[in-house]
Design goal:
- By secondary structure, the chain is mainly beta.
- It has 4 helices and 12 strands, in the order βαβββαββαββαββββ.
- The radius of gyration is 16 Å and the shape is globular.
- It has a single domain, classed as Sulfite Oxidase, Chain A, domain 2, CATH 3.90.420.10.
- It is 10% helix and 30% strand.
- It holds the Pfam family Oxidored_molyb.
- InterPro entries: OxRdtase_Mopterin-bd_dom, OxRdtase_Mopterin-bd_sf.
- This is Sulfite oxidase-like oxidoreductase.
Length: 210
């Protein structure tokens, strides 16, 4: 496709599994609730909350698709203990959104919103990682509806639930607030290399009170 590919440093790093994970061949479908129907004429991506200028930003599907595209080769680690290695994700870097719709200086976290009101909270530093990407493609092909078309967030260094399918927007927050699964017993941070699966594992300061 002629787009730049960003790779992890060293082949060995790409094929190391986090603790408790198993290698998965193929890509299982895992999600909560039905697959939403995509209606391009109604679809929009919003950035709201504590924005730098106090204004909300919106993009239609065509406008969002026209933003600078890149690819990242990265693994996907599901909290259900399977890992899919070396996938090429294509889409819009999260940093691009931060650049064109900057957050206010006191923003510390974001809430990523998806269809049906699903949400996932992230530290701003995780969202701003150079490898975090709003994916539209995997391995050069459009995502299927079951895997998140038209848009899913990929945060390679966290468990996959932290990157929702069917994303519709980002809320900038000046304090942390738990998302859908984080309110239901999953870890507020979700680092697979520390095996942060459940809220009972949280250390002081890793999340707001349940």
């Amino acid at each position: 496709m002629g787009h730049p590919v960003e790779r992890e440093s060293g082949e060995a790093a790409r094929y190391e599994l986090p603790p408790g994970q198993r290698l998965q061949r193929g890509w299982p479908v895992t999600h909560y609730g039905p697959v939403p129907k995509f209606r391009p004429e109604r679809w929009e991506f919003r950035v709201f909350g504590a924005t730098g200028d106090g204004e909300k930003r919106c993009w239609s599907h065509d406008e969002f698709a026209a933003l600078p595209y890149t690819t990242v080769v990265a693994d996907l680690h599901c909290v259900t203990k399977f890992s899919m290695l070396g996938a090429e994700w294509g889409g819009i870097p999260a940093r691009t959104i931060l650049e064109i719709a900057p957050p206010a200086p006191n923003v510390t976290h974001v809430m990523v919103w998806a269809e049906y009101g699903f949400s996932s909270n992230l530290r701003l530093s995780d969202f701003a990682s150079e490898r975090t990407i709003f994916a539209t493609h995997k391995d050069g092909e459009l995502l299927t509806a079951e895997h998140g078309f038209p848009l899913r967030l990929i945060v390679p260094h966290l468990y996959a639930w932290k990157g929702p399918k069917w994303v519709r927007g980002v809320e900038y927050m000046t304090a942390d607030r738990r998302g859908f699964w984080e309110e239901r017993g999953y870890h507020n941070v979700g680092d697979p290399w520390k095996e942060q699966r459940y809220s009972y594992q949280e250390e002081p300061g890793e999340g707001p009170e349940l």
